[in-house]
From TrEMBL:
This is Cytidine monophosphate-N-acetylneuraminic acid hydroxylase. GO terms for molecular function: 2 iron, 2 sulfur cluster binding; CMP-N-acetylneuraminate monooxygenase activity; metal ion binding. PROSITE patterns: RIESKE. It comes from Mastacembelus armatus (zig-zag eel). Keywords: 2Fe-2S, Iron, Iron-sulfur, Metal-binding. GO terms for biological process: CMP-N-acetylneuraminate metabolic process; N-acetylneuraminate metabolic process. It is an enzyme of class 1 (oxidoreductase). Residues 12-110 form the Rieske domain.
Length: 598
């Protein structure tokens, strides 16, 4: 079977993107003359080829559409609503093949996936499921265990420890045997490299007990296991996108890329006896927005709050009231988007997950109070208001869904088995000291006794030729600057380290970072997600604009091999040894010159 391919069919730079008007925009690729339509709406961009699915006619603007969302075919007057990519004349006919839109530093690339609906390859008719044949058990956050006949398939096991340094902690208490289940799994899927999915404290247990456990990840440009030195796992399988992976006669799965973050995010379809389970995980636009309809079970994230913006920002407009209003509106938009997505896909059963985390550490009480998230029950209620055809499930740790029973009779109360009333559902202790102490051990590392680590680190990071000056300030847990901490400037235009801001016009960021986390990130060459998504810094910016190129580099594009600190320390020692010799040489030379003159 051919691997799935993707091709950039049209690229617009930031200037061209800024000229796109709200509603319908017609564009032509100057290289090959092919035509495309870009729709700009409140939710972002949608794009497709300018070609009617009926008989290949060209679309023009529909002057009868006052809403500015519809185009009309010049051949037979078929009409396409670009905001939904559905044909409205005739209604209920076709769905337009949508291109994947990738935003990069203000520019826009339109990407065509081939094939667009890869799950349609080798279709299988659903077979009857017996009671107990397919069971889905919720463990915690994004971790689900699927019993599929005689095999067990586990998703994204974060079962212990924090995520994003020390910023995220598990909300739910996993079942007591969760780690045993992980170590006994036949297949493990890890969707992406974020530490609430790729949990090294959890995988450390797996590597000690069963290092050859079969793990499957997508072929992202940033490898999921880009830092394999943290654990010793010997059976990591990287699979191509959009291709069925056959496990046995009845079981197969397919990993697909995200349309917004194809370099790192993935989602998965698992099929057993013709019954599909769709897990979109954290994808913003899974598979570029093209997903199978009427799957038997769909799972997705729902909560929001997985970003440092705006909670960690200060100065200017970022008052507590502004933040609260912004977060409220974003939550509402996310809830509406998820509800409409589920309604449009019409799964038989829907389960919100991958949002059950809490900012539990006492030092992050402000974030916990400010970063209000959506509730799973609220999303399910909204879906139920939109349609009565979808069974919704709000999972509890250890709860089990019997898919066969639920599909046979959605009203069957025995289809879902909840944990006993005595079961502990929510965590109330997290071993803070164990994990925070591990991070803080970096503070006393030898490399930070030598100020030139700064130049060594940012040279390794490899980001420059960008007119941005960043001030980095090491702080305590309350974001108060440390008297003996580093406070320095980095000018990324020429990768210099000035003592004052340059006179030229430039953008400016001020980052106050908790010293233990910052030094741990630097020492291990970690991605800055630990700082930004983990709420471990406070940010001020002038002007108040998002620097995508900067953040994208430090969050996804740092070198996969960490800084060579041994080489750095050797160079420091050479300098220390060389300096006394040079001093002795100059002293002898001076005495010689004095004698010579006399």
């Amino acid at each position: 079977m051919m691997d799935r391919t993707w091709t950039v069919v049209l690229s617009l730079d930031a200037g061209a993107v800024s000229l796109l008007k709200d509603g319908v925009n017609f564009k032509k690729n100057p290289k090959d003359g092919k035509c495309y339509i870009i729709y700009k709406g409140t939710g972002g961009f949608k794009a497709c080829r300018n070609q009617c699915k009926h008989q290949g006619g060209l679309f023009i603007k529909d002057i009868e559409d006052l809403g500015g969302r519809t185009v009309k075919c010049t051949k037979h007057n078929w009409k396409l609503n670009l905001s939904t990519m559905k044909y409205v004349n005739p209604p209920d006919s076709f769905l337009q093949d949508e291109l994947v839109e990738i935003l990069d530093d203000g520019g826009l690339c339109l990407v065509e996936l081939s094939p667009p609906d890869p799950w349609l390859a080798d279709p299988r008719e659903p077979l009857e499921l017996k009671e107990g044949e397919v069971k889905v058990t919720y463990l915690t956050h994004a971790c689900m265990e699927l019993q599929l006949g005689q095999r067990r398939f586990m998703f994204d096991p974060w079962l212990k420890g924090p995520a994003f340094a020390r910023g995220w902690w598990l909300l739910h208490e996993p079942p007591a045997d969760a780690l045993d289940r992980l170590c006994a799994a036949d297949l493990i899927y890890i969707s992406h490299m974020h530490s609430d999915h790729l949990s090294y404290p959890t995988l450390k247990v797996l590597s000690e007990r069963r290092p050859d456990a079969p793990i499957y990840v997508g072929d992202t440009s940033r490898p999921v296991f880009w830092s394999q030195s943290k654990v010793k796992l010997t059976n990591i399988n990287v699979v191509p996108f959009g291709v069925w992976q056959n496990v046995d006669e009845h079981l197969r799965f397919m990993i697909m890329m995200d349309g917004v973050h194809p370099e790192m995010d993935t989602c998965i379809i698992v099929e057993y006896k013709g019954h599909m389970i769709l897990n979109t995980v954290d994808c913003t636009r899974p598979n570029g927005g093209r997903l199978p309809q009427n799957v038997d079970l769909m799972m997705s994230d729902f909560a929001g709050g997985a970003s440092g913006f705006p909670m960690t920002f200060y100065g200017g407009k970022y008052s507590d009231s502004w933040k609260a209003n912004f977060i409220k509106n974003e939550r509402k938009k996310l809830l509406n988007y998820k509800a409409q997505l589920v309604k449009s896909l019409q799964p038989k059963i829907y389960c919100p997950f991958a949002g059950y985390f809490v900012e539990a550490h006492p030092s992050d009480s402000y974030i916990k109070e400010t970063n209000v998230k959506n509730g799973a029950d609220a999303l399910n209620a909204q879906i139920n208001n939109l349609t009565s055809d979808i069974k919704t499930w709000t999972p509890k740790p250890g709860a089990v869904l019997d898919l066969g029973l639920a599909l046979t009779d959605p009203t069957n109360s025995e289809a879902i088995t909840n944990p006993p009333a005595s079961a502990k559902l929510y965590k109330d202790s997290w071993d803070f000291d164990l994990y925070v102490d591990e991070l803080n051990r970096a503070i006393s590392c030898e490399i930070f006794k030598h100020p030139n680590w700064i130049q060594f680190y940012y040279t390794w990071a490899g980001f420059q030729n960008y007119n941005l000056v960043v001030r980095m300030i090491e702080t305590d847990d309350n974001f108060e600057p440390l008297l003996d901490g580093y406070d320095y400037l980095v000018d990324f235009l020429d990768l210099s380290f000035p003592t004052t801001r340059p006179d030229r016009e430039h953008s400016y960021l001020e980052l106050k970072n908790r010293v233990g986390v910052m030094r741990h990130v630097v020492m291990h060459g970690g991605l800055w997600d630990d700082l930004y998504i983990g709420f471990q810094n406070r940010i001020s910016r002038d002007p108040d604009i998002y620097h995508h190129k900067f953040w994208n580099h430090f969050q996804t594009e740092l070198p996969c091999c960490g800084p060579d600190w041994d080489k750095f320390l050797r160079s420091v020692m050479i300098c220390k040894c060389t300096a006394p010799c040079l001093l002795f040489f100059y002293c002898v030379l001076s005495l010689f010159l004095i004698d010579f003159v006399l």
